[in-house]
Amino acid sequence: MVRLKEHPILDFPPGREVAFTFNGKEIRGVEGEPIAAALHAAGVRVLRHSPVLGRARGFFCAIGTCSSCLMTVDGVPNVRVCTEPLTQGMVIETQKGHGHLPID
Amino acid sequence: MKEVDIAVIGAGPAGLSAALACGKSGATTLLIDFMDAPGGQLIKQTHKFFGSERQFAGTRGIQIPSIFINQLSQMPNVQLVLGVNASGYYADSGVLTLEDGGKFIKVKAKRVIIATGAGEKALAFENNDLPGVYGAGAVQTLMNAYGVKPGNRVLMVGSGNIGLIVSYQLIQAHVQVVSLVEAAGRIGGYLVHAAKLRRAGVPILTSHTIVRAIGEETVRGAVVAQVDQSWQAVPGSQREVACDVICLAVGLTPLVDMMWQAGCEMKYVPALGGHVPVRDENMRASNPAVYVAGDAGGVEEASSAMISGEIAGISAAVSLGFRAQDADARLALLKSDLAAIRSAPAGEKIRAGIMSAMACGGER
Question: What is the ipTM of this complex?
Answer without folding.
Answer: 0.94
